[in-house]
Amino acid sequence: MSAVAHPPVADSGHAHAEHHHHKESFISKYVFSQDHKMISKQFLITAIIMAWVAMIMSLIFRLQIAFPGESFAFTHFFLGDKWAPNGVLSSSMYLALVTIHGTLMVFFVLTGGLSGTFSNLLIPLQIGARDMASGFINMLSYWFFLASSIMMLSSLFVESGPASAGWTVYPPLSVLPEAIPGSGAGMTLWLFSMVLFVAGSLMGSLNYIVTVLNLRTKGMRMTRLPLTIWALLLTAIIGVLAFPVLVSAVLLLIMDRLLGTSFYLSEIHIAGEALDNMGGSPILYQHLFWFLGHPEVYIVILPAFGISSEVISTMSRKPIFGYRAMIGSLMAISFLSFLVWGHHMFVTGMNPFLGSVFVFTTLLIAIPSAVKVFNYLTTLWRGNIVFSPAMLFSVGMVSTFIAGGLTGIIVANSALDIQVHDTYFVVAHFHMVMGVSAIFAMMAGVYHWFPRMYGRMMNTKLGYLHFWVTLISAYGVFIPMHYVGLAGGPRRYYEYTEFPMFQGHFMDLNVMITLFAILGGAVQIVFTYNFFHSIWRGQKAPQNPWRSNTLEWTAPVEHLHGNWPGPLPTVYRWPYDYSKPGKSEDYVPQTVPLEEGEEDH
Amino acid sequence: MTTLLIIAVLVLGFMVVLRLSRVAELTGALRGHREEVISEQDNRTSGRLMWAFGAIYLIWFIWLPLEYHEVFLPQAASTQGVWIDAMYTFNWWMLGIVFFGTNIALFYFAGRYYHRDNRRAFWYPHNNKLELLWTVVPSVVLVGVIIYGLSVWNKITAAPAPGTMEVEIYSKQFDWTFRYPGKDGKLGATDFRLINADNPLGIVTRNTITNRLAELHEEVDKATAERDALAEVLPEDIKKKKSEEIAHLNRLIERIMGLRTLMEQDVATNGDNSTYLHGADDKVTKEFHLPVNTDVELIIRSQDVIHSAYLPHMRAQMNAVPGMATRMHLVPTITTDSMRTITGNPDFEYILLCNKVCGVSHYNMQSPLTVETAGAFKVWTIMLTPFEKAGVPPVEASSGGEATLSDTVKTEIAGGAEAAAGTNNQSN
After folding, report:
1. Residue at A346 is within a domain
2. For B156, what's the count of Cα atoms within 13 Å in the CB-facing half-sphere?
3. Pairing between β-strand B288-291 and β-strand B366-372 as defined by DSSP bridges
């Protein structure tokens, strides 16, 4: 109710201060909240739950890959007799777990969780706005997200099992229940869940764009925006342009499944019967899917760039090197992200000449990515680095981004891709570059802005433990995985027991990967404990714990609707005046007016 | 069991850590410790750990492939594979330099510049020359990578020379079937509606059309009889389903009759060059053989869902997509026997894997590939039975089982179509 009463304009601040302390009901405060800070927490906690589900799934199938046919109480505990008879994962459930793990991680954790959480938290606070342009639509975006999450999870409980055709759900496998049991009711739920997800994501994205463009406070020029906001803005723009294409792909798939159309089907003979469908093409689906699917990778990684830029600059006590080049490279990446989808399809029978065009556009993305890495390195150089857990995770993010980004140059090159396409090399590549590095940035964001979210501090020492064990296990999982791929090991294989060439050292590597995965999974208990414990029991946070320049730290620790009790802050400078010569402190908040003769950046 | 134990130990370990941290937290609170204040000692420790981790990481990164080198595939066994391997070598060196350079810089800076209270960071917001440098240098390097990559890609995907031998790789859940051209040197047309127990690839010949039509008519009759005989007792929805099935079968019949018309028109226009006449002598087999040092054009098709034909030793891969035929051009260069010597493994086999998730048994959809000398390959193909043996065609069913190959083929072609042995001109 109160958000409606506060048009987010500067002079409403006073009116606001008068009634922010009105008693809110539990429902309007915690459940159907229209406050961007609460919505951001809702996104984050939903994402943490989804991440746990997805991670446990990965542990279950990693156990099967490393120890095929062995019985595990862990597997049996989660899957029961139907999907894990005698504690051995069934081959159909294996594919279902792989599929749902990918879907949850890509969409629900790294899209909803990352950009949902931090767009909501940071956009109004860092640009100096009272709230999102539309609090109501913002609330709806979360509720669509939650509904789609619940629908996705509910597919785990249907009798024929959840979707099992891989997270890309390529037809005809995803259309024909005769081909795989998961393409029954489970796939229908998957598809409808995605439609809801995209609807929610669009509401969110449009809101973010409008808010950034229209509700910046006085003096907050586009060239004074923190890089987080630039990254989140461009993420939202990519989302608005790309996600609807996924819906169209999904709708055509739904029609093929339920209405007997033939968009993706042609000349199929299955279960002893020739189908009537003629004239469609499975390749059409791949084009539509990857037209979203590739920009999606950047929807995941751009917020990660934004967060790590912000954290690295703040904690190095040094301005981010090449602010404008960083914005330029974000823009270049966003633009190019729409021109590269075909690199997922080099060996699908797509015209080889078209393939060459995609080789060219894809490899171009390496240039802005390289610029970003070099700028991070230069920011660290001669800094005065405070190793908060957030900073550690940001350094880890740069390292894993290097490791994952470089193998991107291999898989983007069509001739090289022939050899490693759909092998574990690709799995290792994208987990490194968009899985691990995005998760690292997300962790950095959580540790860094936790005081802003909950008004309390997380435990630093547990953060250290969490970081080092996670870093070691992330590399322990994904570096050996490259070699599994180079050995020719195909992904989505339930077991390799039938192949003499995939025994011996090949399996040793798989065991190593699984053990590191268990370690990495277990240490997340520390994080989860630290997170929830600190919400209630953490040390009370000071106003500006990291001595940061950005606006969110000028708002009171105690949350209130409208963010600032009085008038909105006015901005006089860019956000990266760290260790500026001639200043007594090593930071100068954006709200400090320029001194006589001082140069704005 | 050991793993369970490991998990139990890990979980217990973390419980202990959590309790200890709680104790530390409480004592810290007594001493006035603040979470956001990171002491110089903690910063130094983190910095040193960055160095230690960076060093161990990079050493481990080198050690791992040396220790586990056995997992890597042996040398490429095709001309295309050799090109790809050379390209990999170039790319690994280039990427290796960047990888080590950037990681060393990252971990070195992180460890070197940890926070000290008496220091101040260096104010260095930008430097246009540096930024230009690391935009231009990667661009130039990438131009090289792109040009090299595309030149290899163009060679690999180039159209085959006329007369290149075609071999079909046919995929379905969860196995592979192969088709070799017969005496006419060409693969015949196929249609998925003709697929049945006797014709797993749906090869089009006059016989397969006739047989399939008969089979379908029989099915229609049976379904109709079942529906009508039990008309009184069957529930409505089952009756409806039966009717739909009959309608479906009738549509199939109609389309196959259409196919027959198309075939006869094509034969009338193109005579013996008609692609519909090349199928009878094709050889369908579950074994996969290729001749060494010979150009082969692999035609890849699928019956049901997307599969992918992956030959890791050849560095070759192409998806099998229902509704279309994809192609892969290959020159195998090392016979299976030679590879056994090279790898020192007497049981070595080349392998064809499915590399696109295709269903619950995807993980075991494989077939060995034998690469042999051209002579051995020829003998092997001659021994294969043609799809339609001489005895089958209705006309001139004369020759017995003992006929030589050429006789068989001639007879069969005479039986299947108008006249004369197949020519090598490509029909449309």
Report:
1. yes
2. 35
3. parallel
State residue B199 phi and psi, 5-degree precision: -135, 70
Q: Domain residue spans in chain B?
A: 189-277, 283-388
Position B3 scores a pLDDT of 61
Measured in angstroms, the CA of A592 and the nearest CA of chain B are apart by: 18
3-state SS string for A288-307: HHHHHHHHHHHHHHHHHHHH
Q: What is the spatial distance between Cα A132 and Cα A3, in angstroms, rounded to a whole number?
A: 10
Quote ipTM for the complex: 0.93
Q: Are B319 and A347 in contact (CB under 8 A)?
A: yes
Test B324 with A281 for CB contact under 8 angstroms.
yes
> Would residue A175 count as lying in a domain?
yes
Asked if B192 and B324 touch (Cβ cutoff 8 Å), the reply is no
Q: How many domains does chain A have?
A: 1
Which value, in Å, is the radius of gyration of the alpha carbons in chain A?
24
Look at strands A273-274 and A269-270 and give their pairing. Answer: antiparallel
Q: List Cβ neighbours of A596 (8 Å cut-off, separation of 6 or more).
A: none
- Cα separation of A315 and B388, whole Å? 77
What interhelical angle do A366-380 and A323-336 show, nearest 10? 150
CB atoms < 10 A from the CB of B165, how many? Answer: 17
Cα–Cα distance, A492 to A168 (Å, whole number): 12
**Per the CB < 8 Å rule, is B103 touching A409?**
no
In a domain, A354, yes or no: yes
Please state, in angstroms and rounded to a whole number, the distance separating the CA atoms of residues A433 and A44.
Answer: 21
Judged by DSSP in three states, B34 sits in coil
Beta bridge partners of B199: B196
Q: How far apart are CA A409 and CA A365, in angstroms?
A: 10
CB-side neighbour CA atoms (13 Å) of B35? 30
Q: What is the CATH number of the domain that holds A532?
A: 1.20.210.10
Asked if residue A562 lies in contact with residue A13, where contact means CB atoms within 8 angstroms, the answer is yes
CA distance A423 to B315: 12
**Each residue's pLDDT tens digit, A509-532:** 999 999 999 999 999 999 999 999
Q: Are A111 and A299 in contact (CB under 8 A)?
A: yes
Compute the distance between CA of residue B95 and CA of residue B72 in angstroms, rounded to an integer.
19
pLDDT in tens, A281-337: 999 999 999 999 999 999 999 999 999 999 999 999 999 999 999 999 999 999 999
A567 belongs to a structural domain: no
Whether the CB of A598 is below 8 Å from some CB of chain B: the reply is no
Interface of B with A in 227-256 (CB under 8 A): 248, 251-252
Dist. CA A601–CA A571, nearest whole Å: 13
Range of the domain at A343: 33-267+276-554
Measure CB to CB from residue A487 to each of B21, B71, B119 and give the nearest one.
Answer: B71
Instruction: Render pLDDT for A416-461 as a digit per residue (tens, 0 to 9).
Output: 999 999 999 999 999 999 999 999 999 999 999 999 999 999 999 9
The class level of CATH for B283-388 reads mainly beta
Q: Is the previous residue joined to B174 through a cis bond, with omega within 30 degrees of 0?
A: yes
Report how far residue B245's alpha carbon sits from residue B251's, in angstroms, rounded to the nearest whole number.
10
B221 touches chain A (CB under 8 A): no
Rounded Cα gap, residues A155 and A100, in angstroms: 9
Residues A234-266 pLDDT 10s: 999 999 999 999 999 999 999 999 999 999 999
